[in-house]
Amino acid sequence: MHTNTAVMRSLAIIVIIAFTAWTITDAQKINPCCVKVSTAKVKEPIIGYTLQRENLPCIRAVVFQTESGFFCIDPQQPWVKEKVMQLRLAQKNKLSPSSPSSPSSSSPSRPVSPCLITSTVRDAQKINPCCVKVSTAKVKEPIIGYTLQRENLPCIRAVVFQTESGFFCIDPQQPWVKEKVMELRLAQKNKLSPSSPSSPSSSSPSRPVSPRLITSTVRG
């Protein structure tokens, strides 16, 4: 009886520790959001979308995905509601096992993660998300790129690291962050140098993130 009680207590402790670790891991993954929206129509072909809920300074928005980037759009616009319904129908037809393969049903309309990131806005119509919080925790995944985000409240100064699974908003004042940025810059410089020999170190991907690139889901 005492043995069973001890085992149950041990299992309970393990569950609590695992849950705590999972919570901390999620808390460290700080990603950006839409803080402004546009009413202008997206002229590029839309291949996906996500609905962002209000959580100030992040506001309610529809985020449309195109080949060149993402757009924060006003969800109250009639054309937006129509486009969302169209994308939902296309996705439903694509997922249906009985639906025949066709250009309309095979068009990609995958939901995009609300955890999004960008830096500069290239024109008035392209309102994109930004980092509104940063993490000090080290990114454990291999970093393949980065971008620097300037302060433009509510967007704050941040380093955005890119991994295969997504993007991370990181505190630029952390010593490890400065070291990693220098490392990525050196790798990029060596990669672009015409005189540099081809080697595993110089061919490692360390491309800066495009200002129009946005995060996907960050998986733990």
TrEMBL record:
Gene Ontology CC terms: extracellular space
Gene Ontology terms describing biological process: immune response
Keywords: Cytokine, Signal
Superkingdom of this protein's organism: Eukaryota
Chemokine interleukin-8-like domain segment(s): 32-85, 129-181
Pfam family, one: IL8
Low complexity bias (residue ranges): 96-112, 193-212
Stretches for region Disordered: 93-112, 188-220
A GO term for molecular function: chemokine activity
Entry-linked InterPro entries: Chemokine_b/g/d (IPR039809), Chemokine_IL8-like_dom (IPR001811), Interleukin_8-like_sf (IPR036048)
SUPFAM superfamilies with a match to the protein in the record: Interleukin 8-like chemokines
Residues of the signal peptide: 1-27
PANTHER family from the UniProt entry: CHEMOKINE (C-C MOTIF) LIGAND 34A, DUPLICATE 4-RELATED, SMALL INDUCIBLE CYTOKINE A
The protein's name: Chemokine interleukin-8-like domain-containing protein
Gene assigned in the entry: LOC118241419
